[in-house]
Design goal:
Number of strands: 22
Largest sheet: 18 strands, antiparallel, barrel
Radius of gyration: 24 Å
Shape: globular
Structural class: mainly beta
C-alpha cells in the first residue's frame, strides 16, 4: 500500500511542477452495501431453513482515477482500494481478510493499480492507447465482463465514423523467465505457441438517430492442436425510434476446442440476443427487456468424453456487467455457475425513476420471468447426469427506492423475491428466496 500511495503522491508532485507543464485531474467513486438473505438456496432438493440459510454481510469498493496530461498525451490510472467484504483481521492481527471477488480467502494490501495506460492524440484524426486498460466489453452491457487487459488500441476518425483496431495480449509464455533454481534466466521461447492473443476490428457510426456498432473479435489460444479459438462477431445498436428509445445487441460466439491427445476437435456455436425498449415519461420510465442465451447441446454432450473441460463454450453467459436480476442473475448466476444467467431466456418488465413528489426520492420496480434453453446431459462431479436445467423456469420480483442526498451522494434501499421450478421428477424445488439491501454511493 505504501508503494501505491507514494506513486499517487509522485503524480501530484509531477503535476504541480511548472517545468513538467503537466496537469493533474482526479475523479473517483465510493460504494458500500449491506445485504440480508433469507432462504439462500438455488439447487433442486434443497430445503431452506432460517438458521442455516439466512445471513447478512457488508461490502465496499473505492476507486480513484488519476490522470496526468501533457499536451496531447496523458497517463491514465485506476486505483482500487478495499474492494472487499467487511471482515476481521488475521489471527496475528497483521492484515485484513479481504474476501474480495478474485479470491475470497486471499490477503492483500487492499490497494492496487488496476489500470495504467498511455493515450496520445495525433491531431483530431487518430488516437492511440497503449497499456493496461478496460477490456471484454462492447456495445451494450449484455455479455460483457469489464476486466483489465493489456492492449494496443488505435481509433481513427473518418467521414463514416470511428474505426478502430485492437491487439490484446491475454497470456504471454514466450518471454524471459527464471530457471527452477530462480537464479539463472531461462528463455521460454518454446512456449510461445501457448500464448493467448486477441484481435479486434470495430466501428461506430450513425444512421439517422441510430448508432451502429459492429465488432469482429478473434481469440487464438491454440498450441499443437490443443486449446481453443473463438471468432465472435457482435452488432450493437442504440438510439431513438420516435415514440421510444432502445438498445440491442446480437452476439454470436463460434468456438473451436481441440485436445490432440484425446482426438477431440469440436465446434460450439451459441447465439446471444438482447433488446431493451423504454419510454422516458415525466412521471417514470417504463421499459421491457428480452434477452436470449443459446445452448449447444451436441457440443456439451460431445465434451463429456474429455471430462467437460470446455462445456462452458456451449452455454451462452449474459456475463457479470449485465445484472439481469438481483437474485437469479447477479447473485445466483443461474444456469451453470457463470457470471449471470446462462443458456436462458429472460423476459423483464421494469419501471425506473418513478417520481414521488419528493424531489430527491425516486422508486423503481421490476418483474422477470426466466426459461431455460438447456437440454440433454452434462458432466457433473465426475458423473454423466441429465441436465437439471432442461425444463427449469423461475420468476423474480424486485422493488427499490433511491434518495439523492446531494448531487454526488445517493442512498438506496431495495429488495427482491425469487421462486425456482426445476420440473425434475422426484426432486423437490428449492424454497423461495428473498433478500433486502441498502447502499450508499458517492461520485466525484
Amino acid at each position: 500500500m505504501k508503494k501505491v500511495l507514494c506513486t499517487i503522491a509522485l503524480m501530484l508532485l509531477i503535476a504541480g511542477s511548472a517545468y513538467a507543464q503537466a496537469t493533474f485531474s482526479l475523479t473517483g467513486d465510493y460504494w458500500a452495501e449491506g445485504k440480508y438473505w433469507f432462504n439462500y438456496n438455488s439447487g433442486p432438493g434443497t430445503d431452506a431453513t432460517y438458521s442455516e440459510r439466512s445471513f447478512g454481510f457488508y461490502e465496499q469498493d473505492i476507486n480513484l482515477y488519476p490522470k496526468i496530461s501533457v499536451g496531447d498525451t496523458s497517463l491514465n490510472f485506476r486505483v482500487a482500494i478495499t474492494d472487499v467484504y467487511w471482515g476481521g483481521p488475521n489471527s496475528d492481527g497483521s492484515e485484513l481478510i479481504t474476501q474480495g471477488a478474485d479470491d475470497p480467502n486471499a490477503n492483500d494490501d487492499n490497494i492496487q493499480i488496476e489500470r495504467a495506460f498511455l493515450t496520445h492524440k495525433f491531431g483530431d484524426k487518430l488516437t492511440l492507447d497503449v497499456g493496461l486498460m478496460d477490456g471484454t466489453q462492447w456495445g451494450t452491457v449484455f455479455a460483457d465482463d469489464k476486466q483489465p487487459q493489456w492492449r494496443i488500441k488505435a481509433i481513427a476518425t473518418t467521414s463514416v465514423g470511428a474505426i478502430g483496431a485492437v491487439l490484446e495480449k491475454n497470456v504471454e509464455n514466450g518471454a524471459l523467465g527464471r530457471a527452477a533454481n530462480n537464479e539463472e534466466p531461462a528463455y521460454a521461447g518454446e512456449d510461445e505457441r501457448a500464448d493467448r492473443d486477441s484481435y479486434g476490428l470495430f466501428m461506430i457510426t450513425k444512421v439517422g438517430d441510430i448508432y451502429v456498432k459492429p465488432l469482429l473479435w478473434y481469440v487464438d489460444s491454440m498450441r499443437d492442436e490443443t486449446g481453443f479459438t473463438l471468432f465472435n462477431p457482435v452488432l450493437a445498436l442504440n438510439g431513438d425510434l420516435g415514440a421510444f428509445s432502445f438498445e440491442t445487441e446480437i452476439n454470436y460466439k463460434m468456438w473451436n476446442a481441440q485436445v490432440e491427445a484425446l482426438d477431440f476437435d469440436e465446434d460450439a456455436n451459441v447465439l446471444g440476443f438482447y433488446l431493451n425498449i423504454w419510454k422516458a415519461l415525466d412521471a417514470m420510465t417504463p421499459g421491457f427487456v428480452f434477452a436470449y442465451g443459446g445452448y449447444d447441446k451436441d457440443f456439451v454432450e460431445d465434451n463429456i468424453a474429455i471430462g467437460g473441460n470446455f462445456a462452458s463454450f456451449g452455454n451462452f453467459d449474459f456475463e457479470d456487467d449485465f445484472n439481469s436480476t438481483v437474485i437469479l442473475g447477479d447473485e445466483y448466476c443461474w444456469g451453470g455457475g457463470g457470471d449471470d444467467l446462462q443458456g436462458m431466456t429472460l423476459l423483464k418488465l421494469y419501471v425506473n425513476d418513478i417520481k414521488t413528489g419528493i424531489d430527491p426520492l425516486t422508486l423503481s420496480a421490476y418483474a422477470a420471468y426466466v426459461m431455460s434453453n438447456q437440454e440433454g446431459q452434462i458432466f457433473d462431479g465426475g458423473a454423466v447426469v441429465d441436465n437439471p436445467f432442461e425444463d427449469a423456469t423461475a420468476w423474480e420480483f424486485g422493488l427499490g427506492a433511491a434518495y439523492k442526498i446531494t448531487d454526488n451522494l445517493t442512498y438506496s434501499v431495495y429488495g427482491a423475491y425469487a421462486d425456482i421450478n426445476y420440473d425434475v421428477t422426484g426432486v423437490d424445488d428449492p424454497d423461495a428466496v428473498y433478500m433486502i439491501a441498502n447502499a450508499i454511493e458517492f461520485n466525484f
